[in-house]
Write a structure and sequence with these properties.
The complex is a heterodimer of chains A (279) and B (271).
Chain A (H helix, E strand, L loop, with lengths): L1 H22 L3 H26 L10 H13 L10 H9 L2 H6 L4 H34 L13 H32 L2 H16 L13 H5 L8 H8 L4 H31 L7
Helix pairs in contact in A: 1-6, 2-3, 2-6, 3-6, 3-10, 6-7, 7-10, 7-11
Chain B lengths: L1 H22 L2 H29 L7 H21 L1 H4 L1 H6 L4 H6 L4 H6 L8 H18 L5 H32 L5 H13 L8 H10 L2 H4 L1 H8 L9 H6 L2 H19 L7
The chains are: A mainly alpha (279), B mainly alpha (271).
Chain lengths: 279, 271
Amino acid sequence: MKPRMAEALRPFLAVIGARYRMLLQYRAAAFAGFGTQLFWGAIKLMILAAFYGVASSEPPMSMTQIIAYVWLGQALFALLPWNVDPEIWEKMRTGSVAYELLRPLDLYAFWFASTVAFKTASATLRMIPMVLTCVFVLPLVGLPEWALPPPASQLSLLMFLLALGATILLTTAITMVLHMALFWTLSGRGFNAIMYGLVGFFSGLIVPLPLLPDWLQGMLYWQPFRGLADVPFRIYSGSIAPAEAGFEILLQLGWTAVMIVLGYTVYWYARSRLVVQGG
Amino acid sequence: MAELRNALALYARMAGISIRGQMQYRISFLLTSLGQFVTTGVEILGIWALFDRFGDLPDWTLPQVAFFYGVVNVAFSFTDALARGFDLFGTEFVKTGEFDRLLLRPRSTVLQLAGHEFVLHRVGRLLQGLLVLGWAISALEIDWNVWRGAMLAYTLAAGFVFFYALVIFQATLAFWTIESLEIMNTLSYGGVEAAQYPLAIYHRYFRQLFTYFIPLGCVSYFPVLAILGVDDPLGSTRTFQVLAPCAGFAFFGVALQFWRYGVRHYTSTGS
């Protein structure tokens, strides 16, 4: 049983490895992204600090927790489902998806693996210099109060890492819904445009979700994008206690399951009535 | 003079062709415009949420910040629509060797690239910027007169050329780097993000960077203070605020010089 399982997994591991090596070639782009994220994070923090300076009542998160939230958001920016994989878009557009369908593998599972690599490779490349800068460089240049604070506790760190794993699955499952919808629209550009606003706002990247009006919090709690940023970042800083983190991670996984079912249904439906473009 | 008129006519023709081309895909145009509207519009929701949670900033109210936001978004939407040729320059012209063909034509490279594409769906950003600006104007009870109106138009024009200059700088760098450098996007998109709030709330280093080195503050913060008729917490004089947008035009001039320098040093990638 065991060796057969390893045999079945091998193509997926191979595609993940190949994608990783390919994306690591784009170091210059990653470096530029790092600069952008650093600049963006600094602006966000200065704006939030200005507001915290005038807070008359106790805000729902401390400034230290906000700093962790903003820097983690910038470090893991590339992980969020902003865009479709240009390679898959190209396959849909040119019709070479027909060859993909001929492979003796389930296309959804195959692309899922490839999408995990697509999301994590670009994220790790940008994350490492960001974290190093926020932890070590900022204190060295005389800005220790702006540095990325350590996690609230060891348990928080452990739960954060688990939540981050769930975030990777969730972001992949959402991106896969977009990929499968490409069977219908062929226009990835429209998705990229809409997703940026949607994901940015509802994940907490534009404004940390707890700072949004109280009357919106109920609605914000029950939506999938929260699991992309808000949940792991607040677990890290202790804004969500480790005891509650378990349920939050289950919620992330629940949303992942919903997105997988949605993506797979679209795929199932599309496969039965596929029109391949081009000749 | 005749030459300029000819250039403008040619530009109008190129823009017209580009617009007609995009109108062939009407649904796509509507959807991407809507995407632009939503994507750039969520920022104002974020600003509103922070004011809702914390109340006014020491020197600034929500309508004032909305005015800063509107000005910079309207100015940038014009650049974003009209500077596409320079924006894509590295990837589509230098890397492919396509720039050689532009050099062979009896028209300036700047004109050809400016006319490369008129990106219609940027109307999404323009619309939301105008809406926010309109709301700010009605909420602020400014005493409008000819001078204030002219000042607003002059500020928007300066903002437009300032951002255009940033895109030209980015394009020129591609002569050496071949690929388009994303790092300049930090300054254009990041600049828009930063200028949505008054410059005074940022750290001293940022303020200096965006006043003397990259004159973003000169095309947004300072002239807007003069329009709003409020005193600068940083202490600039009214004369300085009125003259500041000139720095945007000067910056554009420098960018054009840098572009000419780049063109002279262009070596084709061949193939």
